Amino acid sequence: MTLTIPAGMPQYEDVPRLDVAKVRADFPILDREVNGRRLVYLDSANTSQKPRQVLDALREHFERHNANVARAIHALGAEATEAYEEARTKVAAFINAPSRDEVVFTKNSTEAINLVAYAFSNASASGGDPRFQLGPGDEVVISEMEHHSNIVPWQLLCERTGATLRWFGITDQGRLDESNLDELVNERTKIVSYVHMSNALGTVNPTARITARAHEVGALVMLDCSQSVPHLPMDVQDLGVDFIAFTGHKMCGPTGIGVLWGRGELLAAMPPFLGGGEMIETVTMARTTFAAPPARFEAGTPPIAEAVGLGAAVDYLSAIGMPAIQWHEKELAAYALDALPTVPGLRIIGPQVPVGRGGTISFTLDGVHPHDVGQVLDAEGIAVRVGHHCARPVCDRFGVPATTRASFYLYTTTEEIDALVRGLERVRKVFG
Amino acid sequence: MDVTELYEQIILDHSKHPKGAGLREPYDAEAHHVNPTCGDEVTVRVSLDGGKIRDLSYHGEGCSISRASASVMHELVQGAELEHTLAIQEAFQAMVTGRGQVEPDGELLEDAVAFAGVARYPMRVKCALLPWMAFKDAAARAVSGGEA
């Protein structure tokens, strides 16, 4: 018997879908065994696995086109330069940036955030653009939900400039607490930098109110999109923020390549971060004038093959379709949020419903330390992350020293979530 | 690898019922150690009586390995000669960092031999070592003048 959904209601085909078996065939590592069991990889928020298409692009680059970029006049140099710049074009299209020159390659999200933080202190030290001037009395706003990479650079910036660091709290439901938005973001605020999707809680933060308030008081807005760009469609023009940071290795690309996207006119007003080759216009022994963005922020030989790999990853994700990936993970999150609480003593830390959240789920198990949970799961071939996930304030907020975190991606299956639930039963047996 | 080789019964028992836990007065020195990768923490206090450990008290937040390690350490160290306890500390460190290549000295290490399996789990070595390193630190401070 087939189930018919009445006309006028949302139909099964209305949502974009992906064929997970077909996707998995692209990821050679998913076939390997760990401790005698088929690998169940539930640590994609930490780093994603890489499809053959990306591995092939890396190999082909090194085997056929390897040379330094932007300085070699020979054929290989031209090919490598073209490949590197084509990756920039692909990334720009992937996030719907109005111009490819707004895409700055960094080594990771951390460097992208530091690049913006240093624009503030360098502009403050040298009398640069007033939007980046920061001093005593000024305020920088972050949140309690941040990864350490979006806390520490701003703490250090505030120490260098005498500005004050403030932050949004987290509600008991694991959502950003916007109740004091108008007081927290005020005329003294110069930048608001917060996470789009929490790596520890899975929460996807709404941005419209915060962006509107920040821009109303003349503050800039930066979003840490390390966990969102890999998992949901990104349109920076629709988002309306000023900067986003993300990293290649969490979105099927290689490590060592990240992205800062910034509004063109802001990047143009920013002083350089790192000094060196390729970021200059003219150098004399006394002083240097700098290249226009993005070159201004890409000192030295960049991660060329890594950029090419990221370009291939973007092609791969686009071909499957980001709306399909987002929906797949929404279904996985809904499944896991039902399945996990069947384990006695399990407590989910973060949003309990698959709305306004992604496929990253943190939990605790009564009486068993996450380290021990992770160890027993590993013996079953199941890879999860345990610890504070580089977001210790989140753990403090919920009064736990650490959590176990399962995180999904386009290749994750509901069978793997079942395996996790069985693994947790085994954990309870060992420590029962 | 069979995970039960890591979780010896003796480790599970100590982690469920830790011996000598809690921070006690008086003490000559204390040390607080943190494992920044997992957030485990332990505070160890040492009270000396001549060349002997009069009391070793501790409080920690951590996994079964680090809890059991602190408990076994308390049993081995309490009332023993300081010199002897430092020798145990050294042997324990050599065993768990030895990648399975170090033959543990059963006579010296007693129950702590149960942690030999940890050496084969590089990610867990720090867990087992955390209380012992805090003890070493606290003992050194106690000897050198006892600033708390």
Descriptors:
heterodimer; A: 432 residues; alpha/beta; Aspartate Aminotransferase, domain 1; 2 domains; B: 148 residues; alpha+beta; 5 helices
Question: How would you summarize the topology of this molecule?
Answer:
The complex is a heterodimer of chains A (432) and B (148).
Chain A: H1 20-24, E1 33-34, E2 37-38, E3 40-41, H2 52-65, H3 75-94, E4 103-106, H4 109-126, E5 139-143, H5 152-161, E6 164-170, E7 176-177, H6 181-184, E8 189-195, H7 208-216, E9 220-224, H8 236-239, E10 243-247, E11 258-262, H9 264-269, E12 280-283, E13 288-290, H10 304-320, H11 322-339, E14 346-349, E15 360-365, H12 370-379, E16 382-383, E17 385-387, H13 392-397, E18 403-407, H14 414-431
Parallel strand pairs in A: 3-16, 5-6, 5-8, 8-9, 9-10
Antiparallel strand pairs in A: 1-2, 4-11, 6-7, 10-11, 12-13, 14-15, 15-18, 17-18
Chain B: H1 9-16, E1 29-35, E2 40-49, E3 52-61, H2 64-77, H3 82-96, H4 106-109, H5 125-143
Antiparallel strand pairs in B: 1-2, 2-3
Helix pairs in contact in B: 1-2, 2-5, 3-5
What fraction strand of chain A? 15-25%
Strand order, largest beta sheet of chain A: 4-11-10-9-8-5-6-7
What amount of the residues of chain B lies in strands? 15-25%
How widely separated are the two ends of chain B? 43 Å
**Total of helices of chain A:** 14
Query: Helical stretch count of chain B?
Result: 5
Oligomer: heterodimer
**Secondary-structure element series of chain B:** HEEEHHHH
Give the C-level CATH assignment of chain B.
Alpha Beta
Spatial order of the strands in the main sheet of chain B? Answer: 1-2-3
Radius of gyration of chain B: 14 Å
CATH topology of chain B: Sufe protein. Chain: A
Morphology of chain B: globular
Low-confidence stretches of chain A: none
User: Quick one: biggest sheet of chain B?
Assistant: 3 strands, antiparallel
Which structural class matches the secondary elements of chain B? alpha+beta
The level-1 CATH class of the largest domain in chain A: Alpha Beta
